[in-house]
Amino acid sequence: MLKDWLRPYVRPLPQWSPVAIVPPSQIVVATLRWVGNSADVTTDHTVASLNPLMIATSFDAGQLPTLEYSDSATGKALGILRLVRADSIAAEEAAITLYHVKAGAHRCLGWPRRSWNAWLQNRSMLKNRASGHLNMEPAAAQHLMIAYLRPRPVVLVSVDAPGHRNIFPMDLIGPLERSGFFSLALRSTNVSQPIMREVRRVALSSMPASMKATVYKLSEHHKQPLANWDALPFPLRPSREFGIPAVAAALRVRELTIVHSQEIGLHTFFLCRIASDENWAEGDQLHHTAGFHQAYRHRQGMPFKEV
Ligand SMILES: Cc1cc2nc3c(=O)[nH]c(=O)nc-3n(C[C@H](O)[C@H](O)[C@H](O)COP(=O)(O)O)c2cc1C
Predict the structure, then answer these.
(1) pLDDT digits (tens, 9 = 90+) for 65-91
(2) Comparing C-alpha atoms, which of 226, 232, 177, 230 is closest to residue 46?
């Protein structure tokens, strides 16, 4: 058994911490900065793909903007990503800009623990490469953890089409507020991805933190469709307009109409419009944040509730 004081020196922090947060949360704010300008993009940026790691936002912030995450209560800068403009997507009357993440740094751990922890994490990722679970380079994974400084809510996505039904967890999702889109970044190998491009509608159930184990178990449905809605271990309730089976215990259910989809690296990036939005309950929603963010909050005496 490792002594508590020794643990941080030999074991990396987890890359992700599952935590319970009551939505909507503004605990961490995101600011996009570019020559002489800045914009609050807390609810207007999202991950568009993991490999390459790309960020999407409604703002065109020139060639080399930065994306900064800070604690809204204390103003403390938690981390920064350096972006390079890559492309834009025109959909309906709006435009979305895509940026490559070129560099990044966080300030959740002091030096030298920051570098040592990154080294331990990277070493462990490279070991897992052999088992085929590493789908991005360690440097990009470090940048992705910085993007998770703003805790990302977890939803279950329901797909219902003739001859195909499915429900699986996602957290690479989010509003692009200024343009009114809601985006999803889904690995193109997901078994429902071609069906979603065809039927162009899904329902998102915002998941209570208490259902973490059930949510994680459903990740197998990224690879195989659901045989039968009755096979699920929880009650369902039809979504308002489309009648898609959603989780009856969800905090909130949104129906999305997919208006644009394109492949970006290993992911399919969906731009959607919200067709309906219903609050079914209040309470803690399952979120993911970076392990070093939770470690920082522990040191400040204000950890997120762990689940
Ligand atoms: C809580 C949770 C959220 C996930 N969010 C996404 C997502 O947003 N996009 C995606 O393509 N896959 C998502 N996945 C799927 C995983 O990345 C992975 O593909 C899946 O769990 C299968 O794992 P494996 O390929 O390592 O076997 C999520 C999985 C979990 C458990």
Answers:
(1) 999 999 999 999 999 999 999 999 999
(2) 177
Structure tokens at 86: 């890559």
**Binding site membership of 186 for ligand 1 (Cβ less than 6 Å):** yes
Task: Looking at the structure, tell me whether residues 106 and 198 fall in a common domain.
Answer: no
- What confidence score (pLDDT) does residue 127 get? 87
**pLDDT score recorded for residue 4:** 72
Domain that holds residue 145: 7-150
Atom 16, ligand 1: which residue's CA is nearest? 219
Q: What is the pLDDT of residue 7?
A: 72
Residue 307 lies in a domain: no
Structure confidence at residue 128 (pLDDT): 84
Confidence of residue 135 (pLDDT cuts 50, 70, 90): confident
Same domain, yes or no, for 162 and 134? no
Q: How far is the CA of 35 from the centre of ligand 1 (A)?
A: 36
How far does the centroid of ligand 1 lie from the alpha carbon of residue 267, in Å? 11
User: Residue 233 is encoded by which pair of tokens?
Assistant: 């271990």
Rounded-to-integer distance, Cα 126 and Cα 114, Å? 18
| Ramachandran area for residue 218 (φ above 0: left; ψ -120 to 50: alpha; else beta) | alpha
Residues linked to residue 58 through DSSP beta bridges, in sequence order = none
**Checking DSSP bridges between strand 155-161 and strand 164-170, what pairing results, if any?**
antiparallel
Q: How far apart are CA 99 and CA 86, in angstroms?
A: 5
Amino acid at 244: I
Give the chain's mean pLDDT.
95
Q: Is 212 in the pocket of ligand 1 (CB under 6 A)?
A: no
Q: Is there a contact between 236 and 229 (Cβ–Cβ < 8 Å)?
A: yes
Query: In this structure, what are the phi and psi dihedrals at residue 291, rounded to the nearest 5 degrees?
Result: -60, -40
Please indicate, yes or no, if residue 1 is contained in any of the structural domains.
Answer: no
CATH of the domain at 56: 2.30.110
> Is there an atom of ligand 1 within 6 Å of 216 CB?
yes
**Domain's final residue, options 150, 169, 200:** 150
